[in-house]
Amino acid sequence: MASVPIQFEIHPSSGVPIFRQIMDQVRAQVASGRLKAGDLLPSVRQMGAELQVNMMTVSKAYSRLEAEGVLERDRGMGMRVRTASPTSASVGDRQQELRELVDHVVTRGLQLGLTDEQVVAVVKMVLKERR
Amino acid sequence: MMSELIIESQSLHRSFGSTAVLQGIDLSIQRGMVVGLLGLNGSGKSTLIKCLLGLLRVSAGQARVFGEDPWVLSGAAKARLGYVPQDVKLYPWMTVSQVIGYTAAFYPKWDFALSEKLTSRWDLDRGQRVGPLSPGQLQKLGLILALGHRPDLLILDEPVAALDPVARREFLKSLLEVTQDEQHTVLFSTHITSDLERVASHVALLKEGRLALFEDLDTIKDRVKRLRISTTGPLPHAFSVAGALRTEVTGQTALVAATNVSDRMVNDLRSQWDAEVNVEDLNLEEIFLELHQEPERRLPI
Fold first, then answer.
1. How far is CA B124 from CA B15, B282, B294, in A?
2. Considering only alpha carbons, which residue of chain A is nearest residue B179?
3. Which residues of chain A make contact with B217, given a CB cutoff of 8 A?
4. How far is Cα A71 from Cα A74, in angstroms, rounded to an integer?
5. What is the pLDDT of residue B285?
6. A13 with B217: Cβ contact below 8 A
7. CATH 1.10.10.10 domain locations along chain A
8. Chain A residues closer than 8 Å to B218 by CB
9. What is the distance of C-alpha B217 from the center of its chain?
10. Residues B241-274: pLDDT tens digits?
11. What is the pLDDT along chain A (131 residues), one digit of tens a residue?
């Protein structure tokens, strides 16, 4: 079975380490459904050549995603998106992950002089547009 | 996996007359590392490289390459080493293929398939004499000569300085191919931090004759951050943050570049000063600049 084509955008000169950029994009593609359970990711070698980055960087990203339960190693084949999706983490854990981002949003909202209710209203508005 | 030390130095000093260029370098580079060597012009990058190659004798301290003293490096160790100097100097009357053949003759295990592949990839005319080659073409040829025997250790002194962006990318691609088995070790000096960010596993930064930084690149990016701190009351004159590279305090705001930033440290700052703290990621060029700025500036409101 062929691996899914790479649709990653890597910025080596960002302040975010390249392995974290790869991790974020795999997670995002899994969350959006573009990568589905069982999908085979490109090999470390392929990915390194395609993105023109050090292979150690790619294998570091893959190993950490494996440890997080997003990917699983398929012996002799490579890395697959795990069948049991990472939503197996508890609600509390997932909320904790979101907190940091919300923190920025709230800070910005208060800087703009919005009330608590007005900030919450914006979040609800965005959620509604998604449904 | 056993980590084998390929390059090692302890308290390495080198002076030219009364000018101390290297003032105590402790370096240990393990097999598989790809180390980018950064530093201002005149910070001692080439001097360090030459000391490691045995082209210069150390003034004090010691250096080891493959466990040997570089000044008296054995033939066996030299056969495992590839080097491209800043200025590639070759016999001007030889053609490109003659220079390759001549160099290959010194090595029992020359990989002609590789040198042929690189010659084609880099578009070098095999029948062209070396004399009229451009600096960029010479640098490419120098790289072919350094890579042809598949050295375990590759040392490059500003390998891409004379290359155009297309050739630079080709070079990086070749470097990534060489290092992909994680058995090869590379030390290269450069001013182009974006290249380094793609290929390097580690960064060594020379400043005023010392190693200001030697660390895993990912760890550097994870830990070195710029903090924008603003408080409701004025900050004390002596405001400081642990591990600060640079501190700028103006009344109720402070700008701090620090080397050991973590979530916990940021939260501590928030609660200690009742402050708003924004964390900025820094790329290697910005970190390099932070390291070379005046460390402190304190202005009244």
1. 39, 39, 46
2. A54
3. 17
4. 9
5. 92
6. no
7. 18-86
8. 17-20, 57, 60
9. 11
10. 888 888 998 888 899 999 889 889 998 988 888 8
11. 577 777 788 898 899 999 999 999 998 888 878 888 888 999 988 898 888 888 889 999 999 999 988 999 988 888 999 876 555 566 777 777 788 788 888 888 888 889 999 999 998 998 888 77
B72: which DSSP letter? G
Class of domain A18-86: mainly alpha
Which member of A12, A45, A107 has the closest CB to residue B198? A12
**Band (B7; pLDDT cuts 50, 70, 90):** very high
| pLDDT-based confidence at residue B286 (cuts at 50, 70, 90) | very high
On whether the B5-219 domain is CATH 3.40.50.300, my answer is yes
Which fold is adopted by the domain B224-299? Alpha-Beta Plaits (3.30.70)
Q: What are residue B85's phi and psi, to 5 degrees? A: -75, 170
pLDDT at B2 over 70: no
The torsion region of residue B54 among left (phi > 0), alpha (psi -120 to 50) and beta comes to left
Token pair 């056969």 is found at: B79
Please enumerate in sequence order all residues whose Cβ is within 8 A of that of B185, keeping only pairs 6 or more positions apart, or say none.
Answer: B6, B7, B29, B30, B31, B32, B33, B34, B35, B152, B153, B154
Residue range(s) in chain B whose domain bears CATH number 3.30.70? 224-299
- Comparing B151 with B162, the larger pLDDT belongs to B151
Contact of B119 with chain A, judged by CB distance below 8 Å, is answered with no
In this structure, the dihedral spanned by the alpha carbons of residues A29, A30, A36 and A39, taken in order and rounded to 10 degrees, is 80
* A81 in Cβ contact with A74 (< 8 Å): no
Residues 29-58 of B with CB under 8 A from A: 32, 34
Residue A103, classified by CB atoms within 10 Å of its CB into exposed (0-12), middle (13-18) or buried (19+), is exposed
CB contact under 8 A, B221 and A15: yes
Distance of residue B195 Cα from the nearest chain A Cα, in angstroms: 8
A49 touches B at CB < 8 Å = yes
Nearest Cα residue to B163 out of B154, B176, B173:
B173
With the CA atoms of A89, A95, A98 and A102 taken in that order, what torsion angle do they form, in degrees rounded to the nearest 10?
A: 180
Contact A17 B194 (CB under 8 A): no
Distance CA A61, CA A66 (A): 9
* Nearest residue on chain B to A50, alpha-carbon basis: B173
